Amino acid sequence: MHQDAHSAPLPLTLITGASRGMGEAMALQCLDAGHAVVGISRQRSAKLDAHPPAAGAWLQQWQHDLSDPAAAGWALLEWLQAQPAGRYRSVSLINNAGLIAPLMPLAEIDPADTARALRVGLEAAMVLTGLFLRGTAGWTVPRKVLNVSSGLGRRAMAGSASYCAAKAGMDHFTRAVALEEASQPNGARLVSLAPGVIATDMQVQLRGADPLLFPDRGNFIALHEQGQLQSPEAAAARVLACLARPDFGQTVVADVREL
Length: 259
Ligand code: NAP
Known about the structure:
- With about 260 residues, the protein is α/β, with parallel strands linked by helices.
- It has one domain (about 10-200, about 230-259): 3-Layer(aba) Sandwich (Rossmann fold).
- The protein contains 8 helices and 7 strands.
- Strands 3-2-1-4-5-6-7 form a 7-stranded parallel beta sheet, sandwiched between helices.
- β4, α4 (about 110-135) and β5 (about 145-150) form a beta-alpha-beta unit.
- It is globular, with a radius of gyration of 18 Å.
- The two termini are about 35 Å apart.
- Mean pLDDT is about 95; it is low at about 1-5.
- NADP nicotinamide-adenine-dinucleotide phosphate binds near residues 41, 42, 66, 67 and 98.
């Protein structure tokens, strides 16, 4: 970590799932843009560790398994409460970590896989959002939560019920918390954002599924063959551009393809 307590206030951006894929790309771009970045994942990203931050920027990587999110949540609360006033000029939480359980009908799936997908994809986002809001409640700077959702929270797909449910739950808890925050002084602004289709490990998993258990596999192969996947870097830039918009929070459930 490189941190200078006497430097000018900088944006603080907390990103779950920053060890690879779009989360890692967002963390790299935030470091380039001069943010203080806290990544939360099971693994560390060597690429992030090796990346020279812009002047004043710094990085912490916290290792937590978000399938048991309370520990990460309490650590986040304690850390936020220990931050000196005036160190940051904005504070944002990006709930980006997510996973797809093995692609197969719910009737076939191991209940432990269903639980893990819901806990990482939905419960962790709710726990971290709640404790982030509690930990920054007295802060006078802009406070934002960006939940990384999916078109599959709004359109069902066979073989991925837990993923669809986690993302639909994410959209709807974001709506409910946005109502709660709207009545608070300096209430946080929240958005649940579908980021489009991205060339990451998740797409490799979708293309590698058993077509007998996952009928949509061919569609994901076609998207790949037709060059329709965004790079993680391009997707990250679009999500961060949404976070930076002056009207962030006005549309609570959004899709980058419609912004
Ligand atoms: P990815 O490459 O599979 O990366 C997933 C990230 O989540 C990793 O950093 C991983 O870190 C973290 N994660 C997974 N399980 C975790 C756990 N138990 N505890 C802590 N962290 C965990 O995914 P991605 O494609 O970049 O997706 C990022 C977000 O975009 C997800 O919310 C996904 O649902 C959404 N999305 C993706 C697409 C797409 O086409 N790829 C489309 C729509 C929405 P560790 O393994 O180190 O823990």
